[in-house]
Each structure stands twice: as C-alpha cells, then as structure tokens.
Amino acid sequence: MSAGVAAWLADTRVCVIGGSGGVGKTTSAAALAAGMAARGLRVAVVTIDPAQRLATALGLDELDNAPRRIEPERFDVAGLPLGDGELWAMTLDPKRTFDELIERLAPDAQTREQILANRVYRELSDAIAGSQEFTAVAKLHELAQEGTWDLLVLDTPPSRNALDFLDAPDRLRSFFEGRALQTLLRGGGAGLRLLGRGTGLVLGLLRRVTGAELLSDLSDFFRLLGGLLGGFRERAEQVEALLRAPGTTFLLVTSPEREPIDEALFFQRRLQDAGMTLGGAIVNRVHVDELEGDDDTLAELPSLLEREAGLSPALAKQVAAAFIDEHALARRDAGNVAHLREQLGVDAPLVSVPLLDDDVHDVAGLVRLGAELFA
Ligand SMILES: Nc1ncnc2c1ncn2[C@@H]1O[C@H](COP(=O)(O)OP(=O)(O)O)[C@@H](O)[C@H]1O
Ligand SMILES: [Mg+2]
Predict the structure, then answer these.
(1) pTM surpassing 0.85?
(2) What is the number of the ligand 1 atom nearest to the C-alpha of 354?
(3) Which of 155, 161, 360, 369 to mutate to test the pocket of ligand 1 (most atoms within 8 A of CB)?
(4) Cβ 365 vs Cβ 359: under 8 Å
C-alpha cells in the first residue's frame, strides 16, 4: 500500500522525521515540506545542520533562528509551482533557541538579563544546546504555539542514536529535577562540597568557570534559576504532549542496509511504547534493478552487449560486471525492504526512494526526490 506520503500526512499538523545518521532525514524533510507546500499548505520546515549547498540553494544564508519564506520562484524554475502554498524554512540555532526559552520563562526583564549574562548559565546552556535534541523540540513547540502553520516538519539531529530524540524532554526534566541540581539549589555554592563524582554535566561546566567570582556567579545562578524551574518542568511536559498529540506523526527514514533498518524497527517499537504515532517509513537510496531480476539475462549479458550494443568483448565484460554488481545490490536492498515490510506489517505505509545519480543539494534535487516520495 503506498499512495505516497501526501496521503500519510492528510491529518497531520506536526511531522517529525527520525532515523539513523546519514540516511537522508534532512533532504527528506525538505522535499516533503516542499511537496506539501505545492499542495497548497503553509508549511514550515526546521532543519538541523543542513549541508551548506542545500541551505544556499534554499536561500537560507541569513540565520535568525526563525522560519524564512523561500522564494516561490526557486521552485517554479525547478518545475514545482507552489501555487497558493507557502514554504518556510529555518536552520536550528540550538544556543539561541535555549536563550529564547529562558527569555520567555524569565519573570521579568532584569532576571532575564542577569541569567543570560551569568557565566554559569552560559556554560550550562552550551552543554544543553550542544545535545540539540531538546532545543529541536522546544523550537517545534514554539512554532506549534504560533498556530499559523498548516504543517510543521521537523528534521532531527544527527545523533548517534536516533532514540536520543525521544528521550529529550525526559532528560531535560530529570536534569532539572535531578539530585545534583537540587543539592546545589538547596546549598547554594556550599552544596558543591556535598557532591560526589558522576555528576558530569554540572561539574564539567563548573570546572570551566574559574576565578574569584565563581561562588557569587554560582549562587546568583541558582537563585535566578530557582524561579524558572516550574516553567521548565511545565514546558517539558507540553513538549512531550505535543509529540503524543493526535495531529503529530513520526516518519522514519532508513537506508536499505540491515543495520539502519533494525534501528528503525527499534525506533518504531519505542514509538509504540511511548504512545506516539508512526506515520510511515521511507527507505531511501534504494538500488534499482536495471535487469529486473532476470537471472538468465545475467549470464548472457556480455555476449548480448557485444551483439546488440556493438561493444568490444573487453568492454562488454566490464559493462556487464557493473550491471551485475548493481543487480546484486538491488537484490540485497529488495530483501532488506521485504524484511522491513514484514516486520512493520504488510499494510504499513512504506515508500522506497531510489538512489539518485547525484547528491541532493539543490532545489531541482529536492523536487526529484519529492517526485519519488509523492509518487
Ligand atoms: N535518494 C538519494 N539519492 C542520492 N543521494 C541522496 C539521496 N537522499 C539523500 N542523499 C544524499 O545523502 C547525503 C545524506 O543525506 P542527509 O539528508 O544529509 O542525511 P541525514 O540528514 O539523515 O544525515 C546527502 O549528501 C544527500 O544529498
Ligand atoms: Mg541531517
């Protein structure tokens, strides 16, 4: 069953693209967003670290950590008129997203300035923003709150483990509720002495904040932060609720190799356990079988190429070898896709996207990829 991704997203307001690193999440997110915009929707896509060439092709050079409208002409010339639809895109700036969250949660302007200028905060926010998973969902939540988008598409960070993303709200919450921080909060600077080893994040950042003013910075920080804890906890809960909301869907991207497919299946079970929705799976960069699986043709291929294409015997052998390699890869891919289909259930929405000749780094490439996704 595959009516293309447009059918999967019919009732979707928020679409999160998950999967292992390097499988094509960022390109799929952009192609998907463009395709839905071409269906008349007002779409925003939040990408994370897109390749420079892709960002440039979309005109995302100016980074203000908010979606910018992509000039429709860029898609017109590539043969995908957006019509009444709108495509907006941004590249996530994790540090700024975190600062903006603090600004929003701070009770007044003075507290806000004090926190942002505090050295302990700066080290802490670098550490948290560095993980990207939380800031990505924080941004998603903020855009969802704006309520002006028909569809939000979120690319996910290139984490080693795709599941880090699902755990992000929880990890932030447990950090703020954790014993290390609570001890520090109660004891102010003096609480430091009570801490053992193994509170890596807090101690790691404290090691970088040195100097005579450390203790005053520290106690300021904890006093200021104390007033924000409730807001943080609430925000983490809202973010988690958004990921579980009926209009929110996860799409898994995988390459046709066994390892990322197994990771995608693991991800799918985790989604299920967490009460989140799997909208579909995209198997990307699938080798296409030019020989259409006919084994008899393979043996005769060199002589066929000599006869029909007029190639020299040596060249015919070489060309045949390349075809046969491709055929083997296509066979392997087909087997892995069949495994995925079997595991997900025969009726599960799944689409295969062929390996294109070129990297996808311009609008024309996105349109080509989109044509496969929406086929
Ligand atoms: N179907 C495809 N055919 C050819 N190249 C592709 C295809 N999909 C993605 N790519 C290329 O693969 C690389 C990784 O894609 P990317 O979207 O950055 O992966 P991820 O975001 O999952 O790390 C990029 O260079 C991209 O242009
Ligand atoms: Mg990416």
Answers:
(1) yes
(2) 1
(3) 360
(4) yes
